[in-house]
Amino acid sequence: MMDGQAAMGDMKQKIAAKIFAHYAKWTAAETFFCRKGCSLCCTQNVMITAVEGQIIYDYIAARKMERWLGERLSVARQTQPVRLTTNGFARLCLAGNVEDSDEEQASHAGICPFLAEDCCTIYAARPFACRSFASTRNCHASGTACLPERVVVVNTVTMQLIEHVGQRGYWGNMLDVLLAQSRHADNREVKKYIDEAFIDAAQARILRAEPIPGFLLKPEEEQEVQEYLHTVLAENIGAATVGDILNNRAHG
C-alpha cells in the first residue's frame, strides 16, 4: 500500500502522462520535418521537473538499467545554472520586471548522454521539452528549427502546466534533476554508481518549480489556448478530472 507522498507522486505522473498524450493529439495535425534519427535538438540543454525525472527513473528501473543510467549521469560536463523557471519568468514579466527576466538559456550544451546512434534510448519516457522539439524545415540544412507561432505558444503553456503539476519539486537541467533525485529512496540502485560530489554540485544548480502565475498571451492567442487548456483539464484520471485534482491540491 502506498503512503500519502508516494500516492501523490504517482498521481502527478498520471497527470503528466495525460498532458503528454493530449499534446500529442493536438500536434498530430501539424506537419513536421522531423524523422527518426534527427538529433540536432538532442543536447544537454533540457529543462524538466522532478515529476518527469521520476518517470525516467521508473522507466530505467523497469528495464533494470540502473548502472547504465548512473554511468551516464557521472560523466563530467559543463552545465550553466538557470536563474528562472518557466513560471518564474512569467511571474516577473506579469509583474512588469522585464529587465530582471531578460535571460537566455544556452542554445547548445553538448550532446545528450541518452543519445545512441542518433536515437533516444529513453524515448518513451522523454520529458515534455524533448516532446516539444520539432521543426517544419530541415534543421541540419538551415541550422535552426522553425515552428508556427501557435505551436510555440502552446509549447510554452504546456511547459507552464507541467511545472505547475510539479510545483515545489526540483526544476532545472535534466541531468541535474536526475542527479539530485538519485538520493530518493526509490532510486538508490542508480545512486550507488554516482559520486556524491556530482550530486552535491547538481543540487546547487537546480531551482524549485513554481505554480502558474498567469500566461503571457496576445489577445489573438487566448481563444485557442483556452480551448486547449479546457480539454487538457477535462481529461479524466479515475473519477476526477485533471482540473479537479489540481484545484484540490492547490487548495488542500
Description:
- The chain has 252 residues and is mainly alpha-helical.
- The chain has two domains: 30-216, no CATH class; 219-252, no CATH class.
- It has helices at 4-27, 50-62, 66-73, 86-94, 98-101, 128-132, 139-142, 149-165, 174-181, 188-191, 196-205, 219-233, 242-251, and strands spanning 47-49, 115-116, 119-120, 170-173, 207-208, 236-237, 240-241.
- The strands form three sheets. Strands 1-4-5 form a three-stranded antiparallel β-sheet. Strands 2-3 form a two-stranded antiparallel ribbon.
- The longest helix has 24 residues, at 4-27.
Element layout with pairings:
Blueprint: H1 4-27, E1 47-49, H2 50-62, H3 66-73, H4 86-94, H5 98-101, E2 115-116, E3 119-120, H6 128-132, H7 139-142, H8 149-165, E4 170-173, H9 174-181, H10 188-191, H11 196-205, E5 207-208, H12 219-233, E6 236-237, E7 240-241, H13 242-251
Antiparallel strand pairs: 1-4, 2-3, 4-5, 6-7
Helix pairs in contact: 1-2, 1-8, 2-9, 9-11
In short:
It contains 13 helices and seven strands. The protein has 252 residues and is mainly alpha-helical.
Widest sheet: strand ordering: 1-4-5
The radius of gyration is 18 Å
Identify the overall geometry: globular
**Low-pLDDT residue spans:** none
